[in-house]
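Data availability (excerpt). The following record was deposited with the supplementary files.
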Amino acid sequence: MCFNNIPKSTFMTMSKIFPLAGLVVAFGIAGVSAEEGFKYDSKSRRDPFVPLISETGGYASDAYEASAAEDIRLEGIVWDEGKGSIAIINGEIVKEGELIGSIKILKINKESVTFDINGEHINMELNKE
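Predicted structure:
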């Protein structure tokens, strides 16, 4: 590559830009290291940073670890009085009588689901946000 035909002013401009670019990169790296302590607040929704596929290639769901009312996220209800309704709980599609972890789905209503949690019947309303 021949630099004989490039004006000296171009070299002067480039010599000012490269140190500036170095500072931008340095501050960018410092910004990344400052974010290492960042904690994502999922607000009771699925954390999008947690993979849906496990290391073994299967679907990774927290639904089957549920054992208390705090573990349940009622995400949706498909109401069908004739054929049987379904609910979406912690990302899983369930029907009446099925288990999610140790929690049994007793009844799926239009706006709520009733669960049996350790012998106690808990009714959870569908959040309409």
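Summary of structural features: The longest helix spans residues 8-34.
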